[in-house]
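Per reviewer request, we include the raw input and output of the structure prediction for the construct analysed in the revised manuscript.
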Amino acid sequence: MDKQREQDMGDQARQRMLRNDLRGRDITDPNVLRVMMEMPREAFVPEGYRHQAYADGPLPIGAGQTISQPYMVALMTQLLRLDRDCTVLEIGTGSGYQTAILARLAARVCTIEKLDELSVQAREVLRKLAVDNVDFRVGDGSAGWPEPRFFDRIILTAAAPSLPAPLVAQLAERGVLVAPVGGSSSQTLVVAEKYRGKLIERGVCGCRFVRLIGMHGFHQ
């Protein structure tokens, strides 16, 4: 298949995703829709799964991890209410797809991945896509960013039994945190906003993510 035909098929698949899985549900933020249309999801999945890149479901990326379904990526991004002044902390770099979406909408993204091999792969994909406003770390994301700082937005792309205290501490005043919270097999997507040092939480929908392994997450 020549490159032009492959690109055309990718554009058509993104259009179907946008029409059926995002606009067709409850994704209304025009900036989120624009970036989801522009970002080539096939670049973030193993070659054997690229024909499924725009299907609305998770896909394996190796090391027992997955890339989230496009709808969930769009929903979590929309819930963050990003602007170009935001600094974002992402827990769970994974494939780097969510990272890239965030980076196109925010000033800076700091992302932590527990598995070095996934972090290295994600860095390379983002480099090729000229996404250069991302800082990468490898370590226990449940413990927060290793250097002291506050973030306007925090997103967990792995499930935690409760909102990790170090992340709550690093959330800036009037900041927004989005995370799947619950047990190993099913969770609730939670949005938490910080006002006067306290969190106001609400559940959005049921979801299912891989577990966040760490000191303030699941213990294997």
